[in-house]
Amino acid sequence: MKNKIIYILLTIFILVFIISGSLLIRDLYRSKKEDSANKELSKIVQEAQKEKEDIQEADNKEEEPIYAESGILYQYDKLWQKNHDMAGWLHIDGTNIDYPVMYTPKSPEYYLRRGFNKKYAFSGSLFLGEGWSEKGNYAVIYGHHMKDGTMFGPLYQYKAKKFASEHPIIRFDTLYTENEYEVLGAFYSKIYGINEKGVFRYYQYNDLSDPEVFNEFITQVKSYSLYDTGVTAKYGDKILTLSTCSYHTDNGRFVVVARKKRD
After folding, report:
1. pTM (predicted TM-score)
2. Is residue 122 a contact partner of residue 30, using CB atoms and an 8 Å limit?
3. Cβ of 111: how many Cβ atoms within 10 Å?
4. DSSP state letter for 19
């Protein structure tokens, strides 16, 4: 009887080991496949960027943006032609964040679990929140906090003031404008319950066109921020918010807010 129990337990252990190993291999394969697909997108942009710089140099217009026949910035036109849901590109030096940003106004979370090709992808894509407008003064970009360091996984590094001081610039280009943003603050948050009072529901803001709402938002960001970056904002500035999941609490979030660099 004792030997039979040992045999059953050993069989269960082996089965669990095989299943766990299979799931791990599956996840590693998926992660590598999705990362490779995103790196290919980045490569297309980098090659187009080099072509753009050659055109600028030949025309002696290094400081001026170059546009394709479509009216889209030259470096993003090839990707936009593949998928018109692309709204821009996000890049942060010193991290792996170098991705297209998608926008589907009728279904903002369409790319939550979809890649650039619109097929299922566990890591999803970066996407703009509801109500975004090219002409507006506010953009919020959502992305998954992937443990393999892809998508918004590296965003967590902004929890340290030292990292923020060394990487103060976030580049978010739309299809028509090249933009640099300076980090204004970074903080931990969560999706709050309906009855929780006196909290900052940053995710409910999608329009900062009203001066009072703008000032309220900036005041809250400064209040919640883990450190002072020395960057301030005033009404009329364009604001960028990056949001990802955080595991410090249930429904946790980690948020980085930046202000468009002034001329």
Report:
1. 0.88
2. yes
3. 24
4. H
pLDDT in tens, 196-233: 998 999 999 989 999 999 999 999 999 999 999 999 99
Burial 189-218 (b: 16+ CB within 10 A, else e): bbeeeeeeeeebebbebbebeeeeebeebb
Tokens of 233: 């904002």
Of 253, 72, 91, nearest to 176 (Cα)? 72
For the chain, the 3-state helix, strand and coil shares in percent, each to the nearest 5, are 35, 25, 40
Most confident of 24-28, 80-84, 148-152: 80-84
Q: What is the pLDDT of residue 25?
A: 44
Residues contacting residue 90 through CB under 8 Å, at least 6 positions apart: 97, 98, 99, 100, 101, 126, 141, 170, 171, 172, 242
Contact, 71 vs 55, CB < 8 A? no
Of 197, 221, 109, 99, residue with least CA distance to 151: 99
User: What's the distance, CA 145 to chain centroid?
Assistant: 9
Among 94, 161, 90, residue whose Cα is nearest residue 126: 90
SS3 string, 56-105, reads HHHCCCCCCCCECCCCCEHHHHHHHHHCCCEEEEEECCCCCCEEEEECCC
Say which residues have a Cβ less than 8 Å from residue 204's Cβ, sequence separation at least 6: none
Task: Return d(Cα 36, Cα 21) in angstroms, integer.
Answer: 22
**Percent of the chain topping pLDDT 70:** 88
Closest listed residue to residue 112, CA positions, set 101, 103, 100, 125: 125
